[in-house]
Amino acid sequence: MSKSKDIHLYTASTMNGWKPVVFLEEAGVEYDLTHIDFSKKEQKSSEYLKLNPNGRIPTVVDRTNNDFVVFESGAILWYLAEKYGKFLPKDANSRSETLQWLMFQMAGVGPMMGQAMYFQRIAAKNGNGDPFAIKRYVDESRRLIEVLNTRLEGRTYLVDAQYTIADMAMYTWTRAYYWANVSVDGLPHLQEWLERIDARPATQRALEIPEPYPAFFGKGDVKRQEDQNAARFKDNE
Ligand SMILES: N[C@@H](CCC(=O)N[C@@H](CS)C(=O)NCC(=O)O)C(=O)O
């Protein structure tokens, strides 16, 4: 009889969706994955909303903990880090620093870059171009990644030598700077940090799960994936 795996992850290939995949691949945890199909609005189905009241991905169900459900990608990373004792430093100050940078990602980099992406790649494509909004979100995203660049000067990772959940969360967003049209020119520490995380085998695996999305990184058939992505959200919800 096959034993079900500890973790059931519901996700899709997006910046938030990849975060738990990166963790699980790094930690070597086996997991089941349900690929949520945005084109079918599976994230809004009544069944899925029972797990994630926000109707978005990712969501984790911990089968070893009475099917305990965790939503919000930052909370998921934190939960997994506590559960598996990995990628969250034990030392109180380093732990606090990790959570500070995780919050900075969740409250700053993610929302700002997300809106930069939304206004350019979805709203504009679906007939709602708004140059003021685009400039506002692109400029604010650039300002935030300049903060990251300064933090990374002389550091291997955001919390010194330790690779943590803060790096994982920050990486999936900043790696997609192309999709947000946010320049990384003149930010050498950020670029080197991206390359260091690119080179981790778990990162390479994670970015193909559940499917590769090369357009986010300016690769492959950008036009086709941009059209596909805009069509998924054509109601501009
Ligand atoms: N704050 C949430 C945001 C989740 C989120 O926005 N997920 C996006 C993909 S990156 C999504 O599910 N989009 C589908 C939709 O908006 O219907 C988190 O970090 O988990």
Secondary-structure topology with pairs:
Blueprint: E1 7-11, H1 15-27, E2 31-35, H2 46-51, E3 59-62, E4 68-71, H3 73-84, H4 92-123, H5 131-152, H6 165-174, H7 177-180, H8 188-198, H9 201-206, H10 222-232
Parallel strand pairs: 1-2
Antiparallel strand pairs: 1-3, 3-4
Helix pairs in contact: 1-3, 1-6, 4-5, 4-6, 5-8
The structure holds glutathione.
Glutathione (GSH) is lined by residues 14-17, 38, 43, 55-57, 72-74.
Structure description:
This protein is an alpha+beta fold and 237 residues long. The protein folds into 2 domains: 7-84, Glutaredoxin; 92-200 and 217-232, Glutathione S-transferase Yfyf (Class Pi), Chain A, domain 2. It has helices spanning 15-27, 46-51, 73-84, 92-123, 131-152, 165-174, 177-180, 188-198, 201-206, 222-232, and strands at 7-11, 31-35, 59-62, 68-71. A 4-stranded mixed β-sheet has the order 2-1-3-4, covered by helices on one side. It is globular. The mean pLDDT is 96. The structure holds glutathione. Glutathione is lined by residues 14-17, 38, 43, 55-57, 72-74.
Secondary-structure arrangement, i.e. CATH architecture of the largest domain:
Up-down Bundle
Number of strands: 4
CATH class label of the largest domain: Mainly Alpha
Q: Which fold does the CATH topology of the largest domain refer to?
A: Glutathione S-transferase Yfyf (Class Pi), Chain A, domain 2
Low-confidence stretches: none
Which small-molecule species are bound to the chains here? glutathione
Content of β-strand: 5-15%
Helical content class: 40-55%
What order do the SSEs take from the amino end to the carboxyl end, as H and E?
EHEHEEHHHHHHHH
How many strands, which pairing sense, and closed or not: the largest β-sheet?
A: 4 strands, mixed
Number of domains: 2
Shape: globular
Please give the radius of gyration in angstroms. 18 Å
Quote the distance from N terminus to C terminus.
44 Å
> Which class of secondary structure composition applies to the elements?
alpha+beta
Strand line-up across the major sheet: 2-1-3-4
How many helical elements? Answer: 10
Mean pLDDT: 96
